[in-house]
UniProtKB/TrEMBL annotation:
Family matches, as Pfam families: Peptidase_S9
Single biological process term from Gene Ontology: proteolysis
InterPro entries tied to this protein: 6-blade_b-propeller_TolB-like, AB_hydrolase_fold, Peptidase_S9_cat, Xaa-Pro_dipeptidyl-ppase/CocE
This protein's name: Peptidase S9
Residues annotated as domain Peptidase S9 prolyl oligopeptidase catalytic: 402-606
A single GO molecular function term of this UniProt record: serine-type peptidase activity
The organism's place on the tree of life at top rank: Bacteria
Signal peptide range: none
Length: 612
């Protein structure tokens, strides 16, 4: 890009601070007798608060000093639910459950102690929840009047999605054991209530062969049980029959993302073969309602949908589009008129927004997916920033991401990749990363540069790569094992998989065995794919960003990689944030990291003598 565009008023006006401030997000819609509620994250202080839609306005219910966020399995989710007279939530600071009425009283602690809670559901005067005590996990119910706790299930390594039938006589949940992950193999469990009020021994309804991933069990009004399973190649809705599960009519597509967080709701059964939900095709989300063999599309101009709710008049969801960030929507079921309840305000006018173009390109022996965002301005063959998402079994989406727009405003094109192993393209595509982490993802990251340069869309000699967490590992591998990128940025990224395996938390304790192999039996493979051991291969500058409170990728990983590069004379630098965990949540830190990364790339191009 040329110098005049890089310092143009438009680019300068859309600062890192503005980009970060636009990153308001929403989660966990809950619909009940008192209306619609949601959890809202605001980057200015990193807190999450419950909002209530009533009288045509949104009202914040969370008082100062509280933030509604679970850290079960570190990634949390399912941090609040509605009760008969208010709500119950997990407080971020102490991870305890609190009861809050709608009459304005201060929240009251329902639990105390060292346990953490998540995936909370209210049923029959009790809270159903996943309880975490150090490395032990179980399902419990807690009476909302007296805090009395009852054990519902234990013995499995992990639990999720406890749900009670409308008559209170059946309890269903998802569980899985190490070494599996929730997106590789889980079990759908059911227990019946006995005459004495206790629960009978649970039985496995599906997944006992460890060949499918099940998620989001739901009962309909009649007590029939449904869930999503990928046994046919995609996460699709199936319903209980006398002979097991039976597929519901639906698209051959994923109807949910990989369940990294608890409390997800991307579909709802409506009885029989009827259902309401979202699914993904070619990376773009769709929203539909299937009733009596007819499917009605409510997608409109939006391209991603999360956390669904439904009543007789409206469809409620969290949605985003290529030109609008996350918003809470109410969609009229008859007219399809969309009412914006919260969020959705774009930080730029439509004509200044770079729109995503679908990427589907050859890579190795297969093909990979993603989205291409052209640089804003009239520069030919601009520099390219390749975004690598974390997970790695996660995904990117074709929605307005202020961070991507920050780069586009500065004359960079962006390739946001759903490399092989990403969710949203079926089980086979997701499983393509099995034992090949550090290979196929790197191959896809390098191949997109050649593909876009071959199309004349970017300057392949000015390509940069960045990624957070697992995306940081792919970034470092690409820099160490390929000669494609001019520089890279690792945000709380993995540099030593073996060290990660020794230090990381239980939820991901065996994930590396699936991604790379058994550390003892495949020691040579680990050595070959450890960026720290191949730091001498890196010939280009690298910048690191790391939270000091990170329990997933511990800070020592970044310090070791930084030292290895600096010892080799590579221009490497690092920025540490003492108040951040895995993933930055505070606006000042996010803005600082974004601006420092841009300045870093700009300096690299200046020192190389290339126009920027």
């Amino acid at each position: 890009m040329n110098e005049t565009h890089a310092s143009s008023p438009k680019a300068e006006a859309f600062s890192a601070a503005r980009a970060v401030a636009a990153g308001i997000d929403f989660a966990e819609l809950r619909l009940g007798a008192h209306g619609l509620f949601w959890n809202e994250y605001r980057p200015e202080d990193g807190a999450c608060r419950i909002w209530h839609w009533r009288d045509g306005q949104a009202h914040c219910l969370t008082p100062p000093g509280f933030s509604v966020r679970s850290r079960v399995y570190e990634y949390g989710g399912g941090a609040f639910c509605l009760s008969d007279d208010g709500l119950l939530f997990v407080n971020e600071a102490d991870q305890q459950l609190y009861r809050q009425s709608l009459r304005g009283e201060a929240p009251v602690a329902l639990t105390t102690g060292e346990c953490r809670y998540g995936d909370v559901q209210f049923a029959a005067g009790q809270v159903l929840a996943v309880e975490e005590q150090h490395d032990q996990h179980r399902l419990v119910s807690i009476d909302t009047d007296n805090g009395k706790r009852q054990l519902l299930a234990e013995g499995a390594d992990f639990y999720a999605a406890p749900t009670l039938s409308p008559d209170g006589q059946r309890l269903a949940w998802i569980e899985w054991d190490r070494p599996h992950q929730p997106w590789t193999a889980t079990r759908l469990m059911v227990a019946d209530r006995l005459a004495n009020g206790r629960w009978d021994d649970p039985r496995c309804l599906a997944g006992d062969d460890a060949q499918e991933s099940l998620q989001q069990p739901r009962f309909d009004a009649t007590g029939r049980l449904y869930c999503l399973t990928d046994r046919a190649g995609f996460w699709q809705p199936w319903g209980e029959t006398r002979n097991g599960l039976q597929a519901l009519p639906c698209a051959a597509a994923d109807h949910a993302p990989a369940p990294w967080q608890l409390g997800t709701c991307t579909w709802l059964p409506l009885g029989g073969d009827n259902w309401f939900g979202t699914w993904t095709e070619a990376g773009f989300g769709h929203l539909g309602l299937r009733v009596d063999g007819t499917q009605q599309d409510f997608s409109g101009s939006y391209s991603r949908f999360r956390n669904l709710a439904l009543d007789e008049r409206f469809i409620y969801c969290i949605a985003a589009s290529p030109v609008s960030p996350s918003a809470v929507l109410a969609i009229d079921r008859q007219s399809q008129q969309v009412t914006l309840l919260a969020g959705g305000v774009a930080p730029l006018p439509p004509e200044q927004i770079s729109r995503p173009c679908t990427l589907r390109y050859p890579s190795g022996q297969g093909e990979a997916h993603g989205f291409f965002y052209p640089a804003m301005g009239d520069a030919e063959r601009p520099p390219l920033v390749v975004f690598i998402h974390g997970g790695p079994t996660s995904a990117c989406y074709p929605i307005l991401d202020p961070r991507i727009q920050y780069w586009a405003q500065r004359g960079f094109a962006v390739a946001d990749l759903n490399y092989r192993g990403s969710s949203g393209y079926g089980r086979e595509y997701r499983q393509a990363l099995h034992l090949r982490w550090g290979e196929v993802d790197v191959e896809d990251a390098c191949a997109v540069v050649a593909y876009l340069a071959g199309q004349g869309l970017v300057d392949g000699e000015r390509a940069f790569i960045r990624g957070g967490s697992a995306g940081g590992y792919t970034t470092l591998c690409a820099l160490a094992f390929a000669d494609v990128f001019r520089a890279g940025a690792s945000l709380y990224g993995v540099s030593d998989p073996l060290a990660l395996g020794r230090a990381t938390h239980k939820f991901e304790g065996d994930y590396l065995d699936w991604l790379i192999g058994d550390p003892e039996q495949e020691a040579e493979r680990y050595r070959a794919r450890t960026p720290l051991l191949h730091a001498g291969n890196i010939r280009v500058p690298v910048i690191f960003f790391q939270g000091e409170l990170d329990a997933v990728v511990v800070p020592q990983q970044t310090r070791d990689m930084l030292k290895a590069l600096q010892d080799k004379g590579i221009a490497a630098q690092a920025h540490y944030y003492p108040d951040e965990r895995h993933g930055f949540r505070k606006a000042a830190n996010q803005a600082h990291a974004l601006e420092q990364e841009w300045r870093f790339y700009r300096q690299v191009m200046e020192q190389a003598g290339t126009p920027h």
